[in-house]
Amino acid sequence: MKRLHVLGIGIDRISLDEAVERSLDVMDKRESRYVITPNSEFLLCALKSPGLCSAADSAFLSLPDSVGVLLVASILGLPLNEKIPGVDFAEALLEKMGQRGKSVFLLGAKKGIAEKAADKVSIKYPGLVIAGTSSGYYPPHDEDKLIERINAASPDLLIVCLGSPKQELWMHKNAARLHIGLMAGLGGTIDVLAGAVDRAPLKWREAGFEWLYRVYREPKRILRVLRIPLVILVSLWYRIGGKIYE
Ligand code: UDP
Fold it and tell me: Beta-carbon neighbour count of residue 144 at 10 Å?
């Protein structure tokens, strides 16, 4: 594995299988380390957020979630092998965790969705233990109670789906007081696992058009997609200016 610095954010050149194996190893050490899954919007956001940069710097793994990140990296002359969407990583990891009888806590999404996702994954991955669930919408003063609940459940994996950059900042802030194996910030993954949001058909995903499908299903995401040309311009600017960090 090699960590490349794409617009100042470390992104790992790693395969899905290796990412899963490394995650299982780290999980066993129970050091509450975390995985992030940056997309191109994340890179743009991090340019103006030192807090997000330091959350990214502390990540144990940083997986390129989208073709946008691959494109930005290639403009900068930093080849990444493959994208690893957060949902693919979650599914592959949960499958292996089921085979080893490991436990997961699902945090995030609207009320009731994490429970639905838990029901579905416990059927799909026999052996997987559901340590707990929580919606991602709670008053800030309830955060301590939530941390206590997670610590009492002591999961091997905590899936954190609070949207970006909230989930990365949350993991960075709380890592030291969590007693868990590993956590991963995975955006809309709980919605997908619950069947509340459907993924693009495989052909769209393989062609790198998952983002277009998501806009088609949720037109208000167009505002987010409009930031992609901006991040491409920034990368070209960096490239022309010779600001490349490997
Ligand atoms: N979310 C949450 N709490 C918040 C804000 C967002 O639980 O305070 C959830 C939201 O309901 C959704 C997820 O975070 O389930 C973010 O999904 P999105 O598709 O926007 O993430 P992406 O994969 O695009 O980063």
Answer: 10
> Using CA positions, which residue lies closest to atom 15 of ligand 1?
109
- pTM as predicted: 0.95
Q: Report pLDDT for 207.
A: 87
Q: Is the CB of 138 under 6 A from ligand 1?
A: no
Cβ of residue 107 lying under 6 Å from some atom of ligand 1: no
- Residue 246 has a pLDDT of 46
Helices (H), the chain: 16-29, 40-47, 50-57, 67-75, 86-99, 113-124, 143-153, 166-174, 189-194, 202-206, 210-217, 222-225, 228-240
Q: Is the CB of 108 under 6 A from ligand 1?
A: yes
| C-alpha distance from residue 187 to each of 39, 127, 168 (Å) | 10, 25, 10
pLDDT over 60 at 16, yes or no: yes
Pairing of strands 33-36, 182-185: parallel
Per the DSSP assignment, residues forming a β-bridge with 35 are: 61, 184
The DSSP output letter for 245 is B
